[in-house]
Amino acid sequence: MKKWSLYHLIITVLSLPLISAVGVGGWELSIPTTTATRSSSNLRVREGSPFKIAIFADLHFGEDTWTDWGPRQDVNSVNVMSTVLDSETPDFVVYLGDVVTADNIAIQNASLFWDKAISPTRDRGIPWSTLFGNHDDASFVWPLDWFSSSGIPPVCCPASDDGCAFRGTTRLELIQEEMKSSNGLSHSMIGPKELWPSVSNYVLLVESSDHSKPPVALLYFLDSGGGSYPEVISNAQVEWFKTKSNRLNPDLRIPELIFWHIPSKAYKKVAPRLWIIKPCVGSINKEKVAAQEAENGMMKVLENRSSVKAVFVGHNHGLDWCCPYKNKLWLCFARHTGYGGYGNWPRGSRILEITEMPFRIKSWIRMEDGSVHSAVNLTYD
Ligand SMILES: *[C@@H]1O[C@H](CO)[C@@H](O)[C@H](O)[C@H]1NC(C)=O
Ligand SMILES: *[C@@H]1O[C@H](CO)[C@@H](O)[C@H](O)[C@H]1NC(C)=O
Ligand SMILES: *[C@@H]1O[C@H](CO)[C@@H](O)[C@H](O)[C@H]1NC(C)=O
Question: Where is the Calcineurin-like phosphoesterase domain (predicted)?
């Protein structure tokens, strides 16, 4: 990692004004046919090794900071991430939403907590990207007990124009702040403006270690809403995905992986009834799927693309399975990584390992205690 991080930093610094200028208007990834067209936003497989991704889901940083309990949970979450990063040494990390619990953050600037959540990855020089969940920009909810007879709690609102009205930190502010302090390691992007307030809509290309070979995979990130707007993938996002994927991968030759936060309704259709039995693979099935509010055609588009191998979501802390969908692609939950948020199921991280030539995706769950379970092949032969 060290070796190319300087290169990375220079490229990022040089192209920063470019990225922010075109990123907002709709950043276009160009599939590199020659080395000259390579973009700094692309990822690359290291020669002789598979490309490994760790997914950190539902960290929920920043809860209950006015108690001892809250800050302790954040320390615990940093420990989970550190353990996973040190035992798996992934090439890339995906923060799968609900990085912070904004509705429980009693200060103006949630970026402080966002930054803490990113720090174990950044400190190790590992590149990452983030997408938004339903808690990341939700507005602050005053705890009822703050209005008890003892009066207003001993919480100091930082001096600000809004006084104590906790406007919260917007999706745009969170992502801009993340990019600013990322040492060039953040691959997060601000999606096309016409999709706002849905912000984390973008694509990353994983290139082969061999420059003459075609790209290994396309990673699509979508903002499934929640917080400041409804929990859906909108028609506009579906159209964006169609256009984007047809342009980047018209002949469906490049395998595609999809990441968003809130499960689509299709997850309900494949959910195991009680026990997780084959062909599903996983270890906890403790909740009902809490799906998006509507299905606007995204799944139809995905199942129609033979290049789409799997979708990864978080949101349900008590589910960690993968199930096949119509024998075409896999629908997977990540694994609750954070000590914040509801539920006390042991924490862990879903790991993806992508191999090129032939293309394969393996996945498993790495737990905080070091154990590994739920290994599954996510490619059909
Ligand atoms: C919010 O916190 C971050 C540190 O994580 C800091 O860089 C930024 O300037 C702060 N923003 C405001 C508006 O205070
Ligand atoms: C499915 O794919 C076919 C051929 O690629 C295309 O003509 C059709 O419009 C697609 N349907 C949907 C729902 O995307
Ligand atoms: C995955 O597939 C490989 C062969 O490609 C096989 O060796 C391995 O046992 C499979 N793993 C699981 C968990 O099915």
Answer: 51-317
269 pLDDT more than 50: yes
Q: What percent of the chain has pLDDT over 90?
A: 77
The minimum-distance atom of ligand 2 relative to the CA of 300 is 13
Q: What is the pLDDT of residues 122-150, one digit of tens each?
A: 999 999 999 999 999 998 887 766 666 66
CATH of the domain at 136: 3.60.21.10
Strand partners, 285: 319
Number of domains in the chain: 1
Whether 7 is covered by a domain: the verdict is: no
DSSP conformational letter for 275: S
Q: Return the ligand 2 atom nearest residue 297 CA.
A: 13
- Residues forming a β-bridge with 92: 53
Rg of the chain over Cα atoms, rounded to whole angstroms, equals 20
Beta carbons within 8 Å of 376's beta carbon, 6+ residues apart: 281, 322, 330, 362, 363, 364
Give the torsion through C-alpha atoms of 271, 273, 277, 281, to 10 deg.
30
Probe target for ligand 1 pocket from 107, 111, 175, 176, with the most ligand atoms within 8 Å of CB: 111
Task: Encode pLDDT of 288-340 as tens digits.
Answer: 999 999 999 999 999 999 999 999 999 999 999 999 999 999 999 999 999 99
Q: Which domain holds residue 294?
A: 50-143+157-377
As a whole number of angstroms, the distance between CA 372 and CA 364 comes to 7
Q: Which of 371, 245, 270, 251 lies closest to 329 in space, CA to CA? A: 270
In a domain, 10, yes or no: no
| 2 inside domain | no
SS3 313: strand
Kindly give the number of the ligand 1 atom that is closest to the alpha carbon of 114: 5
Residue 18 in any domain: the answer is no
